[in-house]
Write the structure tokens for this entry.
Amino acid sequence: MVAFNTLDPDKANAVYAADRIVNESRFAIEEICFTLIVTQQPAARDLRTIIAAMNVIVDLERMGDQAKGIAKVVPHLLKNPGQERPPELRQMGNLVGKMLADTMTAYATNDTDLAREIASRDDAVDALYAQVFNKILAQMANAGTAEKAESAYEVLRVARELERYGDLATNVAERVIYLVTGSHQELNVDG
């Protein structure tokens, strides 16, 4: 989000580098999980913990992909730096960043109450996305040139990446609930 907010290509490149590290880490953790399953033959709770970790790392790796998707927008917007970026994008970025941080806390502490609360925040992310979507569609309709319409579309891509990031943070929060309770029925986070 810093790269996007400042249109800083160096920060965008740093996101690409970080994404490669996240990808490598995902596969290293996955290999450890496989080794544990094969060599330790874990039962019940331990197996659920390993499988949950394998699911969490996939969602975290995808979150890295979403961040990279945002970074990819920077070069496009540098061609039209005056493109309006709705303030809701900053709100979305702050919200999903906090969701991830809190999700990692919930995961580390097996805090199902925090996990449920995090998952409920996804509605706020979705509402912000809808606001941005409508604003960007209006910008695209009134763009006047293909270049301006493309710049507006790139901003919409950022909103979509953030919305998806929130979905993935919610997935991890729900995985925490399942890990602790062992039940999919406990995943009702809407009330």
In short: The chain has eight helices and no strands. The radius of gyration is 19 Å. The longest helix spans residues 146-181. Residues 21 and 64 are 10 Å apart (CA to CA).
